[in-house]
């Protein structure tokens, strides 16, 4: 019988530390050609859309897809897991929280391996739900001395700082200056902006950038100078890079 897991049940089973380990392991398998990941495919209708991503990892017995619909009433996320031997549908999971934690963990793994060993300050652009797991993951892999967040509205960044400061028992600062997060050792962009929120001229040498919010061609969180200044640019999927904006992970 197919197992159905609700958002609450999924959240009760997830934690960031084990997600970091799982994401790091599967990224290694993918890089070595031992796992398959296909980039998002989209179907757009006048008032809604459907997005599907699918992957397989035989070493851990995983085969499945994530699908989510977007409409005026909001987005709905589901993951389906199949038995790779029998083809049986094993589970359907509501996966909004699953996707949030996974996305944060990808930036955590990138920061662990690509940021400078002595990197200890974090600047965040964006104060929404997805930014929460970005901070949670990076705080799990780095000893942070300073965290500063910038968003379009003072209300949202103050609420984020209070919420995450209490959850992680760390001080989270806010700023009204868009240049200040860029002056940190590690920078995250997690917005839906169509205009750059991070400019290359603001970055200091040796910074690490997780450009994680742009998942559509018309979204532009970073300007060209950020990429031009990078000594290394990596993506979690080459197909994603060509088809969309992708998650860019940069070391300057």
Explain what this protein looks like in three dimensions.
Residues 239-247 have low confidence and may be disordered. The protein starts with a strand and ends with a strand. The chain has helices at residues 7-13, 16-31, 96-114, 129-141, 154-168, 224-229, 238-243; strands at residues 3-5, 36-44, 48-57, 62-71, 74-82, 89-94, 121-125, 146-150, 173-174, 186-189, 208-211, 232-235, 248-251. Strands 9-8-7-10-11-13-12 form a seven-stranded mixed β-sheet. Helix 2 packs across helix 3 (96-114) and helix 3 (96-114) packs parallel to helix 4. It is of the alpha/beta class and 252 residues long. It has two domains: 3-99, 2-Layer Sandwich (ornithine cyclodeaminase, domain 1); 103-251, 3-Layer(aba) Sandwich (Rossmann fold). It has seven helices and 13 strands. The radius of gyration is 18 Å and the shape is globular.
Q: Name the helicity range.
A: 25-40%
CATH topology of the largest domain, by name, is: Rossmann fold
For the largest sheet, list the strands in their spatial order: 9-8-7-10-11-13-12
Query: In sequence order, what are the helices and strands, one letter per element?
Result: EHHEEEEEHEHEHEEEHEHE
Classification by helices and strands: alpha/beta
Give the C-level CATH assignment of the largest domain. Alpha Beta
CATH architecture of the largest domain: 3-Layer(aba) Sandwich
Q: Count up the domains.
A: 2
Number of distinct helices: 7
- Our measurement of the CA-to-CA distance between the termini, rounded to an integer number of angstroms, reads 51 Å
Q: Ranges with pLDDT <50 over ≥5 residues?
A: 239-247
Determine the CATH superfamily of the largest domain. NAD(P)-binding Rossmann-like Domain
Strand content: 25-35%
Q: How large, in whole angstroms, is the Cα Rg?
A: 18 Å
Mean pLDDT across every amino acid position: 92
Could you give the count of β-strands?
Answer: 13
What does the overall shape look like?
globular
- Major sheet characteristics: 7 strands, mixed
